[in-house]
Amino acid sequence: MKKLLVCMLMLAMLGSVLFAAGSSEGQPAQQQKSEMILGTAGTAGTYYVVGAAMGASVNKNSNTLNVVVQPTKGSMENLNLANTDEIQLGFSNSDGVYWAATGTGIFAKSGKLNIKAVMNLYRSQAQMVTLKKSGIKTYGDLKGKKVNLGPSGQTIVEVSKSVLRAYGIDPEKDITPFYLAVDEGLGKLKDGEIDASFFVAAAPTAGVVNIASNTDILLVDIDKAILDKVTSDFPFYGKGVISAGTYKGQDQDVNVVEMVTEIFASSKASEAAVYEFVKQALETQPQYVNAHVSIQEIQPEFASKTVTELHPGALKYYKEKGLR
Predict the structure, then answer these.
(1) Would 87 disulfide with which of 25, 37, 59, 178, CB 3.0-4.6 Å?
(2) What's the predicted TM-score (pTM) here?
């Protein structure tokens, strides 16, 4: 009996040691998390703010996935990095994802990239800003003017060119084109060095709010027939309105092209990891919604309605929820 008690005590002590070892170092009994890199843009931009908030929420709530949020140069770099699987997820406007996935538009020469859609996020407006004293009221008035079409190498430039062409204006011959970032373009506009400046961002946009505080500006309106044509020709563009009063001195609604910011994935990204990313990003949205006003638009039904083909992991989630 004494020997039996000793044996039982030794077994109990051994079990305690094994339990303690298994419980230390953050509970290694749990499944090790897989890792995905999410390419955003510069740290001062909306892409990075939204991506960082979303990534932190996914990491906090997921037992299987860790998202590394990486600042980049934006849409084009993200698409090219995902094509070679250097990042697994990335931000872009919907036109960039469409062109990359179909090998059209700015990717007509290079061909299709190895990317798939994951989720729509929020809408942004294509805004052409001028000074009231310029006399420019519509895109048709831009002929012969100095116009910033957006930053070189970005899909934003293609939006401005599409609208100008719909008006019968050759963006290379009928205007003097500039290719500047938002702040630089608005600065040159205010200084009188250019006549109008184009960019894509959610309205109200901070740069325009600032310039409108001490300068009389005007948002250039798109004729509804032209807007119909552009959105019909390009399925990744939508119709939007910037309501009167959005900016100081703006006393009328302004018709604009609207674009969707979305997240896409490398075609090589794990189905299980993409599924988990979508699940956590959507189901924990209330936990990070206050990080940026645009996050309010991140909702399952809208997220699932991408123009281009979905990654299998994303499609699996949306099908489970009856959204596809």
Answers:
(1) 37
(2) 0.76
